[in-house]
Amino acid sequence: MEPIYEDNHLIIVNKKAGEIVQGDRTGDKPLSELVKDYLKKKYNKPGNVFCGVVHRIDRPVEGLVIFAKTSKALERLNKMLRDGEIHKTYWAMVEGKPTDKESILKNYLKSDGKINKTFVTDNNDDDAKLSILNYRTIAEGERYSILEINLLTGRKHQIRCQLSAIGHPIKGDLKYGAKRSNPNGGISLQAHKIQFIHPVSKKEIDITLPPTEEMMKLL
């Protein structure tokens, strides 16, 4: 966990692959608690500190995550997220080279909570949700490509499932068809950029992470 931006109302951190944003049945310490510990230590606060989870990214994914430091900020950020006013851009290293260098993917997706996996289905399926993303190829190597992805909907495992469905699973993502795992146990998907208007100060927040080391080799 690496703090990237902080003010009185929110904190944005760089999540490592393997960290969980919120507590789950594994019992592992979540990022929300690590952020609380950081804030307690930084400001020498004795009691509990507020840390509201605004959104999540999957455990094997790394990159930018926003937390609210006040209940007012949390409420406003949650509404902004619902209204599509928080813009997130992802970078993914995928197997192979997509034929279409730029495209919009539209699929109906259905999640199976028992096995924690999402599948492409058809629109007649009761639980199916229309899922849309666009991507463009920004680099190509011999075996892998780097794609920049913008989500138009926010479904569980959406990027992972939709890229796998076109035959280009994310590097390291065994669950969705990758040939081999990554050494760190994560997948090569980074929440690369976040843009939004600050819910209190109204100034523009625009934060971009540097590409990961393995992505830099292709750029």
Task: Give your account of this protein's structure.
With 219 residues, the chain is an alpha+beta fold. Strands 1, 2, 3, 4, 5, 6, 7, 8, 9, 10 and 11 form an 11-stranded mixed beta sheet that branches. β8 and β9 (144-151) form a beta hairpin. 17% of the residues lie in helices and 36% in strands. It contains 4 helices and 11 strands; from the N terminus they run ββαββαβββββαββα. The longest helix is centred in the N-terminal third of the chain and has 13 residues, at 31-43. The two termini are 25 Å apart.
Gross morphology: globular
Report the order of strands and helices: EEHEEHEEEEEHEEH
Number of helices: 4
- SS-based structural class? alpha+beta
Task: Tell me briefly what this model is.
The protein has 219 residues and is an alpha+beta fold.
